[in-house]
């Protein structure tokens, strides 16, 4: 309709043609647009609703894309995408073949830097600003928008530390809403709370002490105040820091009141905000809950058990232990490096430490895994949630590299359970005491045993380290699977015409490999197929090939898994099909033998 302003905004140039007095209307329309689409298509909601005024103000004041705007993490960039030419296809957000849920350089010239993991924006923007200076461009603006949870990460401090001794034309905007996915934690949060309450003397301002021109805090939902301050800072040279106060989920009452749930609420009623409840009756448990409930049960019986998570208590389900044993379970904020070495320190003192980190985020603490844990052979128990393909979050979040980057580390045990019972049993086994660190990887989503909690939780069996299991005997081809992808194998074998030709082995341990079983397999079968939901380069299949080479076996080995490319976003089912590790693709493949 003609009085709808957003429908006529195809890029920031269109936005800048509007009178400043019209911008609150644009803000309302932009909020409504995001709510209407996400209510049906799903995605991240609260973060983007909280920065609508800031998003409009930034594109209104600055000359994007010539001025460079970087969103930390990118959960909050939906408004940015809609204002920068992606309004008409925003409904494809996070869908196979559609636009990404995060800023992505290959998608738009307005996405100055690809993001998805936290705390990278300041370093990236500073790098751009220094490069501009070296090229003689002293007028280009470089803006990093970072949340109060992300700025507590070590990398953000590294960027601030460097920027403070440069003359870079850098503006850091702190979007302070006291929450990331879960509520922010730590001394920095307490400091920012004091600043917001006016209880911190300005002469004690830590940002000013780092040589930044500090301003704020200001109301991030007062679009006129934000624009006024941005225009002032636009003319100020050197490193600048603007502190704004926002409310995550702003404009949708339920999202404001329950910010954790409405971070990514799934489908909901756009008019009322009520989430469409999916029946969970008779469904298998989520793997994260198998972890959380098992660790809680074990912690009740073993007082040495400690739980650690870097900012993912809800996503990892460590929240169960945190509620029951608050002095023995810790959310350390977005600080994966610290989480790993904190766990190592506790392990030196005899604690049984479960360090729960998403697979994709453990990449951020890789040196600590090697140097602080494995080199000292400390029995830290790494529990890697969201291993394998995670779906709509896409390339930045798939946990497909862990098998490859962990199995090359001396002393490390690497295990991927096939189902819920195997997961609870390896957690039980690990807390009994191991001679080495262990990484236990399991996927996002649900398991396969509907009555797991009522029938199996608390009934444990010790697992023999390095032992494989023959699931099914066969006469012609040996399938070696690792982890939950083995369930696809079982289903596929059941569908083929001659299932008796296929043998199936569960190699949950990628390290140490069950070499005794492998010798038997290689002397029995001339055709061997490995399958994993990890990268084929350097992963489980590579380990099988290495074994064959070292022992001069000549059986044909085929490796199935994630190809040597970054996999984009889509449902897990769609992405498994793309990688040819879904049930149908495996059925066709097995039928060829």
TrEMBL record:
A GO term for molecular function: magnesium ion binding
Cofactor binding summary note: Binds 1 thiamine pyrophosphate per subunit. Binds 1 Mg(2+) ion per subunit.
Domain Transketolase-like pyrimidine-binding: 285-450
Annotated thiamine diphosphate binding sites: 75, 116-118, 149-150, 177, 336
EC number: 2.2.1.7
BP term (GO), one: isopentenyl diphosphate biosynthetic process, methylerythritol 4-phosphate pathway
Gene3D superfamilies named among the record's database cross-references: 3.40.50.920, 3.40.50.970
Catalytic function, reaction form: D-glyceraldehyde 3-phosphate + pyruvate + H(+) = 1-deoxy-D-xylulose 5-phosphate + CO2
Pfam families assigned to the protein according to its UniProt record, in alphabetical order: DXP_synthase_N, Transket_pyr, Transketolase_C
Family matches, as InterPro entries: Dxylulose-5-P_synthase, THDP-binding, Transketo_C/PFOR_II, Transketolase-like_Pyr-bd, Transketolase_BS, Transketolase_C
Alphabetical list of SUPFAM superfamilies matching this protein: Thiamin diphosphate-binding fold (THDP-binding), TK C-terminal domain-like
Role noted for this protein: Catalyzes the acyloin condensation reaction between C atoms 2 and 3 of pyruvate and glyceraldehyde 3-phosphate to yield 1-deoxy-D-xylulose-5-phosphate (DXP).
Keyword set includes Acetylation: no
Identification of the protein by name: 1-deoxy-D-xylulose-5-phosphate synthase
Phylogenetic placement of the source organism: Bacteria, Pseudomonadati, Bacteroidota, Flavobacteriia, Flavobacteriales
Subunit composition and interactions: Homodimer.
NCBIfam families in the record: PRK05444.2-2
Pathway membership: Metabolic intermediate biosynthesis; 1-deoxy-D-xylulose 5-phosphate biosynthesis; 1-deoxy-D-xylulose 5-phosphate from D-glyceraldehyde 3-phosphate and pyruvate: step 1/1
Homology family: Belongs to the transketolase family. DXPS subfamily.
Positions with a binding annotation for Mg(2+): 148, 177
Cofactor(s) for this UniProt protein: thiamine diphosphate; Mg(2+)
Swiss-Prot/TrEMBL keywords: Isoprene biosynthesis, Magnesium, Metal-binding, Thiamine biosynthesis, Thiamine pyrophosphate, Transferase
GO cellular component: cytosol
């Amino acid at each position: 309709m003609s009085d709808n302003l957003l429908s006529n905004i195809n890029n920031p140039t269109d936005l800048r043609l509007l009178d400043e007095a019209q911008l609150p209307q644009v803000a309302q329309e932009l909020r409504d647009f995001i709510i209407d689409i996400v209510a049906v298509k799903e995605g991240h909601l609260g973060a983007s609703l909280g920065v609508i005024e800031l998003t409009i103000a930034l594109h209104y004041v600055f000359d994007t894309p010539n001025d460079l705007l970087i969103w930390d993490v990118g959960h909050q960039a939906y408004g940015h995408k809609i204002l920068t030419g992606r309004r008409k296809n925003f409904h494809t957000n996070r869908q196979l073949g559609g636009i990404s849920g995060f800023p992505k350089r290959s998608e738009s010239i307005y996405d100055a830097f690809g993001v998805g993991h936290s705390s990278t924006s300041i370093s990236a923007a500073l790098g751009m600003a220094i490069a501009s200076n070296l090229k003689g461009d002293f007028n280009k603006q470089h803006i990093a928008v970072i949340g109060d949870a992300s700025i507590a990460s070590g990398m953000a401090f590294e960027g601030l530390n460097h920027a403070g001794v440069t003359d870079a034309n850098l503006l850091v905007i702190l979007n302070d809403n006291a929450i990331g996915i879960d509520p922010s934690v730590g001394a920095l949060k307490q400091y920012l709370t004091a600043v917001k309450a006016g209880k911190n003397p300005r002469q004690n301002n830590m940002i000013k002490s780092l040589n930044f021109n500090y301003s704020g805090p200001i109301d991030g939902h007062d679009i006129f105040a934000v624009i006024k301050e941005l225009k002032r800072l636009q003319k100020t040279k050197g490193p600048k820091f603007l502190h704004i106060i926002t409310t995550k989920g702003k404009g949708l009452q339920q999202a404001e009141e329950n910010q954790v749930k409405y971070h990514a609420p799934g489908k909901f009623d756009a008019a009322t905000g009520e989430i469409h409840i999916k029946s969970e009756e008779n469904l298998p448990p989520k793997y994260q809950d198998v972890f959380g409930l098992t660790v809680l049960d074990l912690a009740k019986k073993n007082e040495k058990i400690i739980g650690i998570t870097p900012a993912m208590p809800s996503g990892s389900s460590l929240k169960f232990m945190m509620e029951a044993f608050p002095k023995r379970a810790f959310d350390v904020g977005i600080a994966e490096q610290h989480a790993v070495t904190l766990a190592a320190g506790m392990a030196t003192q005899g604690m049984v430490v479960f360090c729960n980190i998403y697979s994709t985020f453990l990449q951020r603490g890789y040196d600590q895994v090697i140097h602080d844990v494995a080199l000292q052979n400390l029995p830290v128990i790494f529990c890697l949630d969201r291993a394998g393909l995670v779906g709509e979050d896409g390339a930045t979040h798939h946990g497909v590299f862990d098998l490859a980057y962990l199995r090359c580390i001396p002393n490390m045990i690497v295990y991927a359970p096939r189902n819920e019972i195997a997961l609870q049993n390896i957690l039980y086994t690990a807390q009994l005491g191991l001679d080495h660190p262990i990484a236990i990887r399991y996927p996002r989503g649900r398991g396969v045993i509907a009555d797991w909690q009522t029938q199996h939780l608390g009934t444990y069996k010790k697992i023999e380290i390095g032992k494989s299991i023959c699931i099914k005997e066969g006469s012609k081809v040996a399938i070696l699977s690792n982890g939950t992808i083995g369930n696809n194998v079982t289903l596929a074998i059941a569908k083929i015409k001659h299932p008796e030709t296929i043998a199936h082995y569960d190699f949950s341990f990628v390290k140490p490999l069950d070499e005794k079983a492998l010798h038997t397999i290689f002397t029995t079968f001339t055709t061997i197929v490995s399958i994993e939901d990890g990268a084929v380069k350097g992963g489980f299949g590579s380990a099988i090939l290495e074994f064959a080479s070292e022992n001069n076996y000549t059986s044909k080995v085929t490796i199935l898994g994630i190809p040597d490319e970054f996999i984009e976003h889509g449902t897990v089912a769609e992405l498994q099909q793309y990688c040819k590790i879904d049930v149908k693709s495996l059925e066709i493949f097995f039928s060829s033998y």
